[in-house]
Structure formats: structure tokens, C-alpha cells
Amino acid sequence: MADINESDRAAASCGGSRVVLEARDVSKCYLLDEIEVHALRGVDLQVCDGEMLSIIGPSGSGKSTLMHLIGLLDRPSSGSVTVEGEEVSSMEPNQLAAVRNKRIGFVFQSFNLLARTTALANVELPLVYAGVSGVERSRRAREALERVGLGDRLNHLPNQLSGGQQQRVAIARALVTEPSIVLADEPTGNLDSHSGIEVMRILQDLNEQHGITVVLVTHDETVSRHAQRIVELRDGRVVREEVVQKRVMAEDRRIALEAEEQALLEARGSE
Ligand code: ADP
Ligand code: MG
């Protein structure tokens, strides 16, 4: 009986769509030099199928910790995390890894690409782990790179690419296993405004055109407004939840930025 009520509660918050990831009363305590750090203190979070959700909050509020938990990279100290309704704590480590590799793609602030490895080989890597054959690997990696507009940079090394291009390689790497969920932790944190807008455009496109569930961590208010829903953390607690009424569309920002730069150029030209 309790189970039915619980799933009703979850479904209600997702407006009838499926809950793909859920944290329930989750706490995380790190022990560092015998000092306890309470990174999360009783967080409830539901991620709905096909939504784009932002987690916002100041530095140290627990955003990355929460991402690690819902991304199955770490386990909570208490509380429960479920994926598609299945309790994470009851899964064996290899089962957990299998679910993660199959369903979830990660994008990090610092790109995390292998330095002496081409864009193509970086994107192929998750498929190596998945045991996909060489020919198939390179076909799928090329396709993923084309999808993020880097079909002409296959053999470039990370240091031969701009920050924005490196992040697009990282997005291609996250996509190559065809996950249903992409988790992006401060994906625009190290990027200039042009590249940041391009990365947000790609994430919005994955969400809108391909139905991929996107969870985005940011400390930037404007970036957070690219999502449909915002959850705000402070000191390890959820302090605010908002349905975004007027979403920021990256494509609109791109057009506005280009117009601004054009106007600036023209003003300089007529000086
Ligand atoms: P955010 O991503 O919002 O900046 P984090 O989730 O990274 O916040 O960190 C939340 C709190 O937990 C911070 O006080 C941070 O110092 C601490 N913390 C994070 N990871 C660890 C760790 N591995 N060991 C000890 N403390 C940690
Ligand atoms: Mg963080």
C-alpha cells in the first residue's frame, strides 16, 4: 500500500510522465581528516522522463555530490536513490556500472578528454568498454562527432581544439552509447559566451529533438533558465523549486549575440 502511494506521489510531481531518477531523503557525509562534511542533508529530487532540469546553487551547496549520486558514481550515506524505480543500494557494483554505461552520459566542466588521443578515439572509448567492434566503433563515433558539428575535426588532438570544441567532443563521447539521460555538471563553466551558447544549444536540441532527459548543474542563473524546471540547493538542502515560465532558448541568444557583435563592428567602421 505504501508503495502505491509513493509511486503516485512521484508520478504527480512529473505530471504523469515517468520518474527516471529519484533521490529520496538523501544525505551524503564525507569524512575528511576526521571531520565530517555534510554535503547533502535530506534531499528529495525527481527527474522526469524527457525533461530538462537545472540544479542551481552556490559553490559548495552539494550540486556535484547530488549529480554523482543520481549518476550512480557514488552511493548516499543514507536515503535512497532509484533508477527507473530500481533501488541503487540493492545493485551489485557490476550491475550498477552496466546500468550507468547503458543509460547515462556524463559531461563535465573540465571536459575530461584524454590528451594524446584524437577526438575520434576519445569518443570511441566508451564503446571499447562496451565491447563494440572496431569498424562499428569508428562509424558511431564519427556520427556522434558530426552530430555536434565536429565532423571535420576527427583527427585533432584536444590541444588542437578550442575549449568549446573540446566540450563538444565530450558531449559526443557522452552520446555515443545512446544514453536516455545526459548529466552535465557546469558544462559551460570554462567556456567563453559563444561556446557556452553553442553547448547549451546542443543540450537543448538533444532534449527537444531527441527526447533525451537532461540534468544540468550550474551556478549561473541565465544558464539555469535554459531548462524547463529549476531546483535550487543551499547548504545541502533543496530550498526552491521552479517551473520556468519563459525559457531561455540558446538559438535566440546566439542570434542576439551575433547582432550585437555586428552592430559593434558597424559602429567601429563608421568612426
Ligand atoms: P558544488 O558542486 O555545489 O560546488 P560539492 O557537491 O562539490 O558542491 O560539495 C559540497 C560539499 O562537500 C563542499 O563543502 C565540499 O567541500 C564537500 N565535498 C565534496 N566532495 C568531497 C570529498 N570527496 N571529500 C570531502 N568533502 C567533499
Ligand atoms: Mg560542483
Question: Any chance you could write out the topology, listing elements then pairs?
Answer:
Blueprint: H1 2-13, E1 19-32, E2 35-48, E3 52-56, H2 63-70, E4 78-83, E5 86-87, H3 93-103, E6 104-108, H4 119-129, H5 134-147, H6 163-175, E7 181-185, H7 193-210, E8 213-218, H8 221-224, E9 229-234, E10 237-243, H9 250-269
Parallel strand pairs: 3-8, 3-9, 6-7, 7-8
Antiparallel strand pairs: 1-2, 1-4, 4-5, 9-10
The protein binds adenosine-5'-diphosphate and magnesium ion.
Magnesium ion binds next to helix 2.
What would you say about this model in short?
By secondary structure, the chain is of the alpha/beta class. It is built from nine helices and ten strands.
Q: What's the name of the CATH homologous superfamily?
A: P-loop containing nucleotide triphosphate hydrolases
SSE arrangement, N to C: HEEEHEEHEHHHEHEHEEH
Number of strands: 10
Second-tier CATH architecture: 3-Layer(aba) Sandwich
CATH class: Alpha Beta
Number of helices: 9
Report how far the terminal alpha carbons are from each other: 75 Å
Indicate the mean pLDDT: 93
Percent of residues in beta strands? 25-35%
Stated plainly, the CATH topology is called Rossmann fold
For the record, the count of structural domains works out to 1
Structural class label: alpha/beta
Sheet with the most strands: spatial strand order: 6-7-8-3-9-10
Largest sheet: 6 strands, mixed
Shape: globular
Report Rg.
20 Å
Instruction: Work out the helicity level.
Output: 40-55%
**Poorly predicted sequence stretches spanning 5 or more consecutive residues:** 1-5, 7-11
